[in-house]
């Protein structure tokens, strides 16, 4: 299956090229199971290449640390939880889990990294996953076990869960955290104008010369962009879609975004896009889109308010577009005839 994540990334790249001989350095890699693209403007190639190398090394470090189903610090912790044991973890992982717990509580558990067991049950803990229909009883058992981030306690650097069903999957958080780390590393090296794209989660630093960075939002059902917008310094944009990791059984699409309350992949939403800004723009661009997706077409606006988001858009199961007034002002739809419902 060709994953549309890559299509999104290529849209962003294409929008940045074709501008003549500019001091623009670009490099691509593959990490977190997706395509990564970094663009740096206004620096000589040697300096830009060194900066990108450091960022890519950091991405690889985080990938190894936070992998949910291959040997990692996170998978070791999951093994301890399953045995009812405590385990010493790094100070960095302590901070990540505390932050993820806070975001989970803010979302009323619609963002819930503790349901890694359910994600695995549906076959999404694999680089090459196959269509699978889990036994209804096993799904019901996971829902009844109700694993929550609040089940985890961390005392003096040791983590333990009172619920053995807690299995962490930070796939909806790690890319955003990596974006924030990349921004910090680039600033540390004196790089002020860059665009970092991790599989459709994009963070902008500075400008692309005398203009903002311009990126595309992947159309959930077609190749190419649904819309474009300018990103200013410190802006980050993230999209959660049912087209990124999914399989089809008959005419039904099952995506990797699982409703923790039902135990089943979310239906009735094609994509959610949010725009964030500030010190934790990367993390929020990743984690905060999930509650809106799970809340669905009827609950997404309340979920956006709950997560403190002013700029958000949802494409429902029929392809209808709903968005906030704030994001409407920033977007330019590629199809001028598109009608979008603005919800204040």
Structure description:
The protein starts with a helix and ends with a strand. The protein has a domain at 66-161: ApbE-like superfamily (T-fold), CATH 1.10.3980. The longest helix is centred in the first third of the chain and has 22 residues, at 45-66. The chain has helices at residues 4-16, 45-66, 73-83, 91-106, 116-121, 136-145, 174-188, 281-287, 289-306, 325-328; strands at 24-31, 34-41, 87-88, 152-155, 158-161, 194-198, 201-205, 213-218, 225-231, 235-241, 246-249, 252-255, 269-277, 311-316, 321-323, 331-333, 340-342. Helix 2 packs antiparallel against helix 7. Strands 1-2-6-7-10-13-14-15-17 form a 9-stranded mixed sheet, with helices on both faces. With 344 residues, the chain is α+β, with helices and mostly antiparallel strands.
Brief description of this entry?
This protein has 344 residues and is α+β, with helices and mostly antiparallel strands.
The chain-level mean pLDDT equals 93
The CATH architecture of the domain at 66-161 would be Orthogonal Bundle
Number of strands: 17
Tell me the name of the CATH homologous superfamily of the domain at 66-161. Answer: ApbE-like superfamily
Biggest β-sheet strands, sense, barrel: 9 strands, mixed
**Unreliable segments (pLDDT under 50, ≥5 consecutive)?**
1-19
How is the largest sheet built, in terms of strand order?
Answer: 1-2-6-7-10-13-14-15-17
Structural class: alpha+beta
**Topology pattern, helix = H, strand = E:** HEEHHEHHHEEHEEEEEEEEHHEEHEE
What's the number of helices?
10
- What gap, in angstroms, lies between the N and C termini? 38 Å
